C-alpha cells in the first residue's frame, strides 16, 4: 500500500520536516513533484481517506499532537502548510 | 487505552436472558430506552471513552468482542453501538477540550444518546452532495436540512450533523428539541428495532461551541475518521452475525438425520460449511488486525477498515446463506433467529459505505501512483471540493 511507511527517523530541522512531508504526500497521492503550495484537499489531489492518513502520519512520524487550534484547513491543505504546522508543534514541545 | 470490558457487562451480554430480550425487541420493532439505560449503566456506551471521562477506556480490539456479542443477538442494538461509538470518536478526537470534558461523560454514561446524522436522501458516502447547512451567526449555529435513516434517531438526545458552513464541510453536535422534527422511517429489515428516523432541522440552533472542529475540517477529516471507526465496528458486528449463523448451520448439520446418516456427512454440505467457516475466521482475524492498526494510528488504517468491512460483511452473507440452505424451511420463518441474521448481513453490506464504495477505496489505494498521466487521480468517495458545496447551496 502506498501509505505504509511510518518508520522514518525523527527529523529535526525544518528542511528535513518539509522533505519528509513532501515524500509522504508524493507517495500518498501517487504523484511525484507536487509543488509545496499546491492545494491538496480543496483541489482534490488527496481524497478524503488520504487526508485522514496524512494527519495520522504527521502525528506518528513527528510525535506531535495536533491540537484543536491547529485544525484549520490551511494547515493541512498544502505541503508548506503541513510542514509549517509540524515545525511550530516541534518548536513548542 | 488500557482498560478492559466491564465484567458485569460481559456477563449480561452472555446471558441467555439477553438473547431472549433482544428477540422480543425485534418482534416489537423497538429497542426500548429503558433497556439501553440498563446496559449503559453496565458500561455499554462508554467502552471507547477514556476513564477520565467516565468510560472504561477499552482498546478497540476488545471493543470489537462486545460488538460481536451484541450483533449476534440484536443487530438493531448493535447499530446503536456503532453510531454512538462514531460520535464518541468525533468528540474525543476532534472536539475542543471544553466540549470533550462537557460531553464525553454524558455520552459514556448514556445520559446523552447520540445519532450520526450524515446520510441524506441524495447523499451519503458522497459527502460533496450534502445539502444541509450549518450557518454561523455570532455565537450561534443555525442548522437547516433533512437527514435520513438515522439509527436511534427517534430517541437520540443529540445529533452529530454534517453539512456545510460558508461552503466548507463542517459538523456540529445539535441537541434534539426546538427546531428538530423527528419522523419514524418505514420498518427496515435487519434494523427492525433500530428506531430509524428521518430528522429535519428547521433552523435549529446550537451554541457555536458545539461545532466539532472548524469548517473545512468537519469534512473530510472528521467524517472520514468516524467512518473508519464505524467500518471497524460494523465489520465486528458482521463477524458476530457470521459466527452465529455458522453455529446454527453446524449444529443442524451435525444432528439432522438424512438417509441413514447426518447432513454433515454429505460432502457437498461439508464443502459449504468449510467455505463459510474459513470466510468467518478470516474476517474475525482481519477485524482484530484492523483494530490494532486503528489503535496504533497507522496511516493505512482508513483503507484497512474499508477492507475489513467488505470482508466481514461478505463473510456474514456467505455464512447466513449457508445456514439458510442447510436449515431449509425451518430457517425461513420470519421469527427464526436465522431470518434476523440474514437480514442483518444484507444491512451490513450497505451501512457505513456499501460494498462498491469500499471496493473503490481499496482499488484507489492500489492504483495510486499508477495513473502517471492524469492530473486528478480517480477518487473513491468524492473528494471534498468547494464547488460541490456552492452547488449544493443553490
UniProtKB/TrEMBL annotation, chain A:
This is Acyl carrier protein. Residues 12-90 form the Carrier domain. SUPFAM superfamilies: ACP-like (SSF47336). InterPro entries: ACP-like_sf, PP-bd_ACP. Gene3D superfamilies: ACP-like. Transmembrane segments: none annotated.
Automatic annotation (TrEMBL), chain B:
Its cofactor is FAD. Signal peptide: none annotated. Gene3D superfamilies: Acyl-CoA dehydrogenase/oxidase, N-terminal domain, Butyryl-CoA Dehydrogenase, subunit A, domain 2, Butyryl-CoA Dehydrogenase, subunit A, domain 3. PANTHER family: ACYL-COA DEHYDROGENASE, ISOVALERYL-COA DEHYDROGENASE, MITOCHONDRIAL-RELATED. Belongs to the acyl-CoA dehydrogenase family. This is Acyl-CoA/acyl-ACP dehydrogenase. Residues 371-394 are annotated as: Disordered.
